[in-house]
Amino acid sequence: MTARIDRSLLGQQVGPLLVLLADLEPTLETEAVLAALCRAAAHPAGQRAIAHEVAERPELLTSHGAAATLPGVLRFIDAMLLAGATTVVAPLCPRCGKQRRLGRPFGGLRLCDGCTRQAVAMTCGRCGKLRPPARRNDNGHPICQACWSRDPRSWKACTKCGDQRRVAAMTDAGPVCTRCRTRPEHVCGICGRTARCTISRANGQPMCDRCRERWAVCSHCGTGASVKGGTLEAPLCARCLNPDPAFWKRCGTCGITWQLTTAECARCSLDRRLRRILTATSGTSTQIDQLREAFARVERPDHALDWLNKPGVRDTLHAVALIQPAITHQALDALPASGTLSHIRSMLVVAGALPPRDERLAALEPWIKRVIAARKSLEHQQVLHAYAIWHHLRRLRARLADQPASHHQVTNIRHNVSAAAALLDWLHERGSTVATCTQADLDQWLASKPAHAARSTNFARWATTHHHAPRLTAPATRWTGPAGPLDQDQRWADTRRLLHDDTIPTADRVAGLLILLYAQKLNVITTLTTQHLSHADGQTLLKLGSRPIVLPAPLDRLVNDLADATRQPPSGSLINTPSTCLFPGRWPGRPLTEGALARRLHAHGLQLRQSRNTALFMLAAEVPAAILAKMLGIHIKAAVQWQQLSSGDWTAYAAEVSQRNPEEFRQFQ
Fold first, then answer.
1. The organism sits in which domain of life (predicted)?
2. 8-state DSSP, 389
């Protein structure tokens, strides 16, 4: 029913209001003022009461509206602003000073919803937290809404399932719980799938539960936020869906995030939980502040909140915060080892709170110490220490040259040290030592064919060379060539597929092509960064060895696209970190593991070992060993072995190159 005003009472009741507004808002017509009064109150009695209070207290229209005794006065002020009033001012909350919708009066002044909850907050008689009361218990003590919702007395028997549960809706048949509540199925306005939906208050379109929790990069402004409208291809945030500031409410904590309620936004909720978890008894350190600031810049706070809900994450974070006086790698090593602790360590490194270190090598050293300490003989401990530390670890550090150790390098050392320890334990059980070991003892050990027999021969030869054992002869396994068939046709077929199949992820295409065309190992591919790329004369160069190679088209475009994608945080990463890795992993600051990359390439039907052997065999037959070693980054001895295996004659290299067709590679595009 349309609100109407009794014009017979204009002079007696509304007349003073019209006179007042004629001075305050001379540009507004009388009909506009009357229409605003009609929108503020539906009945004539309410209209007269509003007009009387405003006429008696004109200051209500000029920023003192919080002192109004009638809520209709606030509605009249809003209606006047919509009508185009310029002198009338929307009132501010007397407590927080923010321009929000005012509600109940306290102490003669009306407060916003957030301040109202603070004003009526009482200590809950059950949980002890300061919250607005929802009920009172039998003793008259207040109970907050959260505790009352968990109280069985607030539950009723569901008419569908019969269980005592919290009521979600009242139907003609009776109360219905949240599990049995039925919602109609609609076509979601964002993802387009048919599912149970709720009508969005933002755009009036159906929205499924999955899209209600969806976060994406806004197609209009480019910021990461909760999806409020648009489509999956072109999602829109709240600001871009409806730029009217009066339509949206703000986060009750930061006052910045545009949303449909004044509840705490995800970013503020994340910061509050982190402060509670990371605050130690003696205060927070600079390193903890750096970690929290890195979390504050996270693009997906919902992912970070889900991570905090995982078992053990909060306890591990709190244990890290309790480390005094400073957080170091040694202090973190003293905590119980877990994947969560390793993840937190990587975030501290990326945030600048910890210096970076080689985690594989750092984990190898304490493992070697434990293996050495487990030996019962002091002589065997000394021999194993010399073999593991001064032989394997020294050689590995010299080979790495400040580069991170690969998975295969660390695994090879573990296997060799374990084999040596097994041989020493076998000798100890027989009442012998490595110094008194005879050739018959070694032959008996090898004849028994234990699991470590093949790798223990390396230790036997080393012990003989370094005079820890008498002259022993142990067979050495020499490489005689690649195992498996070399299929050149399959290699080029896989190359064509990776070059032109856009359904395969770009990272997998580039990794597979580096194996098929340049015979690269997985540990080399995963450590590639944007620093290995360069551009000159319109060409893209990739440095795999000491000499960069020119990438042909369309491989150069794929590599450049992969380098551009590194500016975005990897999928599943908790904090936003600038990464230079061409193949970033899920943990911040770390590249993709070799095993993960191998699984991804195997899923596309690639035989990695066979493909690399075929590529290296063909390249060794055409390129001299010295150039091959510099281009591919392999050892010169390995290049010579492959060249001898392929019977390549580098003396005819120059003559062959002069006769090559420059269009040879294009036949595979």
1. Bacteria
2. I
Q: Distance (Å, rounded) from C-alpha 539 to C-alpha 411?
A: 38
Q: Measured in Å, how far apart are the chain's first and last C-alpha atoms?
A: 73
Q: What angle do CA 373, 374, 380 make, to 5 degrees?
A: 75
Q: From CA 358, how far away is CA 361, in angstroms rounded?
A: 5
Least confident of 105-119, 166-180, 360-374, 563-577: 563-577
Q: Taking a C-beta distance cutoff of 8 angstroms, is the pair 168, 177 a contact?
A: yes
| Helices and strands of the chain, counted as H and E runs | 29, 22
511-542 pLDDT tens trace: 999 999 998 989 889 888 888 888 888 889 99
How far from 595 is each of 31, 453, 585, 589, CA to CA, in Å? 76, 26, 11, 18
Q: What's at 148, amino acid-wise?
A: W
Report the alpha-carbon distance of residue 138 to residue 323 in Å, rounded: 45
Pick the CATH number of 488-668 from 3.30.450, 2.60.40, 1.10.443, 3.40.50: 1.10.443
For residue 642, report the phi and psi dihedrals to the nearest 5 degrees: -70, -35
Other beta carbons within 10 Å of 49: 17
How many other CB atoms are there within 10 angstroms of residue 501's CB atom? 11
3-state secondary structure 471-498: CCCCCCCCCCCCCCCCCHHHHHHHHHHH
Measure the CA–CA gap between 149 and 405, rounded to whole angstroms: 55
Q: Strands 224-226 and 229-230: what pairing? A: unpaired
In angstroms, the CA 67 to CA 74 distance is 10
The CB density around residue 119, as the number of other CB atoms within 10 Å, is 13
CA distance 248 to 258: 6
Window from 114-123, 169-178, 441-450 with minimum mean pLDDT: 169-178
**269-315 tens-digit pLDDT:** 888 888 888 876 555 678 888 888 888 778 788 888 888 888 888 88
**CA–CA dist 340, 314 (Å, integer):** 10
The amino acid at 22: A
pTM over 0.85? The answer is no
Q: How far apart are CA 290 and CA 602, in angstroms?
A: 40
Q: Hey, how many other C-beta atoms are within 10 angstroms of the C-beta on 218?
A: 21
Q: Which residue has the tokens 């893209």?
A: 540
Angle at 157 between CA 153 and CA 159, to 5 degrees: 155
Q: Is 226 left (phi over 0), alpha (psi -120 to 50) or beta?
A: beta
- Beta strand 549-550 pairing with 539-542: antiparallel
What pLDDT, in 10s, does the model give residues 364-395?
999 999 999 999 889 999 999 999 999 999 99
Would you state the structure tokens that stand for residue 553, as one six-digit string? 């088209």
Positive or negative CA dihedral for 334, 340, 344, 345? positive
Q: What dihedral angle (degrees, nearest 10) is formed by the CA atoms of 622, 624, 625, 630? A: -100
The torsion angles phi and psi of 537, rounded to 5 degrees, stand at: 55, 40
Show me where the domains of the chain are located. 7-89, 122-150, 185-259, 266-357, 375-465, 488-668
Q: Rounded to whole angstroms, how far apart are CA atoms 566 and 578?
A: 8
**Largest pairwise CA distance in the chain:** 125
